[in-house]
Amino acid sequence: MANVLWLQGGACSGNTMSFLNAEEPTVVELITDFGLNILWHPTTGLQIGDQVQDLLKDILAGKVQMDILVYEGSLIQGPNNTGTMNYFADRPMMDWIKELSEVAGYVVAIGDCATWGGIPAVPPNPSESTGLQFHKKNKGGFLGADYVSKGGLPVINIPGCPAHPDWITQILVAISVGRIGDVQIDDYHRPKTFFTDFVQTGCTNVVNFAQKVDGGFGRRGGCLFYEVGCRGPMTRASCNNILWNRQSSKTRANHPCLGCTEPGFPHHDLKKGSVMKTMKYMGTFPKEVPEGRTKLAYYMEAGFQKIMPSNKTVQETSK
Ligand code: SF4
Ligand code: SF4
What we know:
The protein is an alpha/beta fold. It folds into two domains: 2-182, NADH:ubiquinone oxidoreductase-like, 20kDa subunit (Rossmann fold, 3-Layer(aba) Sandwich); 197-319, Irregular (Cytochrome-c3 Hydrogenase, Chain A, domain 2). 22% of the residues lie in helices and 13% in strands. It contains eight helices and 13 strands. It has helices spanning 14-20, 27-32, 50-60, 93-103, 112-116, 165-176, 206-210, 295-307, and strands at residues 2-8, 36-40, 68-72, 75-76, 87-88, 91-92, 106-110, 129-130, 134-135, 138-139, 156-158, 280-281, 285-286. The strands form five sheets. A five-stranded parallel β-sheet has the order 2-1-3-7-11. The chain has a two-stranded antiparallel ribbon with strand order 4-8. It has a two-stranded antiparallel ribbon with strand order 5-6. A hairpin with a 3-residue loop joins strand 12 and strand 13. Helix 1 crosses helix 6. The site of one iron/sulfur cluster (SF4) has 14 residues, from helix 7.
């Protein structure tokens, strides 16, 4: 049994929508079968106004136990570090989060805005947004690099824009059943279960990647790395293993991966020409190459494959 409080800051509610779409288990099953008790959620909570404020005060006073604090959206500190741009229950949300994080069993940041600041933190960042324990790739964020919850863990980051429902539900269940100690997290506090392999693992275009066969938006039979900026080879996430809606993924539908589970997202701060477009040197060589390879090694291998493809059959993969 775990009491969950879910709060939102600078958010579009995309992660809530994703969570509500969970299938195995569903949100209802989380409550009936997996012992989650949702104390309050901004979309589904029945309490309003003073009732919510009283609940938050009771949590801070120790009258109500909060095992998991889920936070969705960026932590808004503006203007001038007052946080008043995001008022909630009669005070800046950032003040609530500071105090609630001190009494939380575990803190779970869901989505890129909560984990590293996401799109709201792109310069000039007028809302002074940041993530709970990271600001982009840098550890620190709002709670500081040294923060650990009462359960002894730093903020558990479940990134994504939005996060996959299974990534959310499985971590909440792991905490609820007392198994979160079995979940390893990486340097960016992401559960390794979901964020070790690259998006490319399981992509149906991977043969075309190997053979340097160019694809395009919605076009079958090619890879999206060469022209439309697919970040599958440098993005750690299980999107092609744990499929979305149990059906598909961006790259299986021939849409480039935008790299939304990496702390640099949105990459290059949305600089013109950097979104869904492969950035190149001299119009030929990709500026970013698959992780684990030097640029020189990659360029040599790519050139060799172009001249002598190992398999001349272009794979038509997308259904
Ligand atoms: S479409 Fe993207 S993920 Fe799929 S093989 Fe190409 S680069 Fe990799
Ligand atoms: S395919 Fe890429 S952009 Fe899409 S959800 Fe997965 S990691 Fe994010």
